[in-house]
Amino acid sequence: MATDLRDPAAILRDYRQLFGPDFEDNAAFARRILSPTLLIGGTADQLFDRSALEDTAGLIPAARLRLFEDETHMLPAERSSGVAAAIAGFLVEPE
To answer: pTM of the predicted model, to two decimals?
Structure first.
């Protein structure tokens, strides 16, 4: 996995999947998610800023957003215990 994170071809492939021709349909897809959903992100994420996370959470009817202040895209690796605690709390009380 660490090799894929540095591979320009892998990064380009991932961006194409995220922002491909059906990108405009993403909001419609998000609105159809009816399960309780937890979005976790960092306020200093280099790829998905706070507004992107807030907008996404706003589209999913049963979404809860948990932001970690000053954390980057590496949040799950750098604050794994905090992320695990957020997930555990969500699983106990999803709504």
So the answer is: 0.74
